[in-house]
Amino acid sequence: MKLKPLADRVVVTMVEAEETTKSGIILTASAQEKPQIAQVVAVGPGEVGDDGKVKPMTVKVGDKVITSKYSGTEVKIDGVEYTILKQGDILAIVE
Question: What are phi and psi of 89, to 5 degrees?
Fold first, then answer.
């Protein structure tokens, strides 16, 4: 199944959280922070402005991005977890 986001929505997969600290301490699942770095897998066409024109999207498929901590809607399709969020919930592109 393929996801095609609408308007200014973006579909991302979260990058796995760190399981160990830099000093080698293994973290339990409850101690791990929710990951904020994600990989963009699909991008909508863009938001339609008041003038009726589509505003182009800033992010593209393949970008690594930093998202707001608890933003978006999580869905599971074919065993893969995705998060669908608005482009405004993306804080930065990781280069």
Answer: -85, -5
Per-residue pLDDT at 69: 85
pLDDT, tens digit (0-9, with 9 covering 90-100), for 18-69: 556 667 666 555 444 566 899 999 999 999 999 999 999 999 999 999 998 8
Tell me the residue type at 83: T
d(CA 60, CA 1) in angstroms, rounded, equals 20
Q: Is residue 38 classed exposed, middle or buried when 0-12, 13-18 and 19+ CB atoms within 10 A define those classes? A: buried
- Tokens coding 37: 């770095």
Q: Which tokens is 36 given?
A: 């904020």
Q: CA neighbours within 13 Å on the CB side: how many for 37?
A: 10
